[in-house]
Amino acid sequence: CETCSEGEAKYRCPRCMKYSCSLLCVKKHKLALSCNGVRDKTAFVSINEFTDLNLLSDYRFLEDVGRTADAAARHSTLHSPTTKKLLYCLRNKARRCNIDLRTLPIGFTKRRENSTTFNFMEKKFYWHLKLVFPHCHAEYTLKGVPDDKTLADILKPYIDPEESDPVVCQRLKIYTMSPRSDVQILMKIENRKQNSIRYNELDASRSLLDNLKGKIIIEYPTLFVVLKTLKNDMVVLGQDATDPAGNSDSESSSLSSVEEGEVRDSS
What we know:
The chain is of the alpha+beta class and 267 residues long. 34% of the residues lie in helices and 18% in strands. The chain folds into two domains: 11-71, no CATH class; 76-227, Roll (Ubiquitin-like (UB roll)). The strands form three sheets. Strands 4, 5, 6, 7, 8 and 10 form a six-stranded mixed beta sheet that branches. A hairpin with a 6-residue loop joins strand 1 and strand 2. It is globular.
């Protein structure tokens, strides 16, 4: 057993291939690795390990994608003039705030998930937001986050030792035990080539709206919370000597990158 290292392994997780000896160890490994236990149908399989079962699995996967995409295309509400008008209004309001907000085609996961709205009475956005904590393999989705809320206040329920939920605090223990000066908030730059991924560092003391100004957002913002003292492969723009500070890459490369990452999950 790869969880307790004591019992004889009886089960193997279809997702991460970890061996477990009991239901308790299965639950522990899922919690520790944020594993859902569902086999990844899009996982890479080398040609030497490719079997007839893999071929059959890929065939069924493509059939499922085709059926789901067809069902989504037939959904009347997604093609209604009201829906298109709301999306146009959302992009227009974002443009006035110096935010390049882009929406994906119907059927993409991020298009379905996005719950971002604009309140005309208050004249502000309520964002759909995703927080990723890579050092703990954890991520959380927030809905209705006002654009005037600072990033520090957004993170308080997660990494503040006093204000965070006990369960969340335990899971993100490495963050809650670190000083606030060690916490770094990054956001991926979308208009870059796939082999040149870079991140913008955001200011925790400023509002979400201020941090998003001048940036390209695909559907909704995804913020990566990292610790400076721990090694990670996220290169911050302007801090890599081999990388120019400017964003000279074509904007079309960003959409192709996003769509290629989403295309297998389009449903």
